[in-house]
Amino acid sequence: MSSPPKAIGDMLTLFQQQPCWKISPLAEALQYAVPSVRRFLAQTGYYSSFTHNGAWYTLGSIPRFNRRGLWFYQDIGFSKAGPLTATIVALIQQSQAGMTADDLGDILQCRCHSVLVSLYRQGKLQRQKQGRSYIYFAGDPQTANNQRRAKTLQQAPAKQLPAEIAVYILAEYIKHPEADFPELAQRISAKGVSVSPMQIENLFAQHGIKKKA
Question: Which residues, 6 or more positions from 182, have their beta carbon under 8 angstroms from its beta carbon?
Answer without folding.
Answer: 197
